[in-house]
Amino acid sequence: MTRIREPFLFTAGPVETGEFIDALRIPYAPVPAFFAARALPAAIRSALADFLPVPDPAHIRHAAQETTLHRWPGAREELTVTPILEAEGDYGFQRAVTLRTRMTGAAGDDVADLLTTLTVGPARGGGRLPRPPAPTNGTGPVLLTWRERIPDDLPHRYAEASGDHNPVHLSESAAHRAGLPGVIVHGMATLLLAVAGLTARMFDGDGAAVAAVRTRFVRPVRPGDELDLAVRAAGAPGSYALHVSVAGRPVLKDTRVTRATAAVG
């Protein structure tokens, strides 16, 4: 069912990523792999524009994300973003779509590639959404643990910084209508806090050392929650398994952070 949507232009680079982090007011340096998150809301709106039935925004949930950074964009560099709706099918008890977002430079070179799984409503049969094989769990000793509190106003700050204004992140009543206990934190905000924390502690704060990130969002995170985080080696040099839980229950699963080859010593 591949549908290539109309490309659009997006400006990204060190300045823009720094502004993004500043707007979130989190105590970490920018992680370039997350600059692309600012293009996701527009890519999602484009990809779902003629999706039938039209999903209620409050029922669109981020189920999984893979982000690969091919190169760090230059300051104020204008990139072309091409949303591609790749597949649709049942994903557990939900209907879901897979969206690929390609980001290319003026010469057509690959800058970043995002693979996003979104649930858009209840399952309705007619085929299951293919899932990539889950990575093996990190088998080595725990390299690092820490705890991170979710700021109470992070959903509002992330919505303004990213352009993702899904009402379940901003309105208690909308969250309740969607069957949630209350406002939930954007999955990408939780992932950014976790990966930026790992980067600060293991990569000497060099966010540009992060070449790829993947995860599944398995439980909602609420403002004020305490994240418990642990890192293990995940086999290949420069690959790390990142475990994130709240009150002993995983909120992210199959999370991998891959260090850029040049940064692996």
Describe this entry's structure for a reader.
This protein is of the alpha+beta class and 265 residues long. The chain is 19% helix and 37% strand. It has helices at residues 14-24, 40-47, 154-162, 172-177, 187-202; strands spanning 3-4, 8-12, 61-69, 77-91, 94-104, 110-122, 142-149, 210-217, 226-233, 239-246, 249-259. The protein is globular and about 45 Å long. The mean pLDDT is 89.
- The parts where pLDDT drops under 50 for at least 5 residues are none
Separation, N- and C-terminal Cα atoms: 42 Å
- Multimeric state of these chains? single chain
The major sheet is characterized as: 11 strands, antiparallel
Order of helices and strands: EEHHEEEEEHHHEEEE
Number of H/I helices: 5
Q: Kindly provide the radius of gyration, computed on alpha-carbon positions and rounded to a whole number of angstroms.
A: 18 Å
- Average pLDDT across residues? 89
Residues in helices, as a percent range: 10-25%
Class per helix and strand makeup: alpha+beta
> What is the strand content?
35-45%
Quantity of strands, as a count = 11
Q: Tell the overall outline.
A: globular
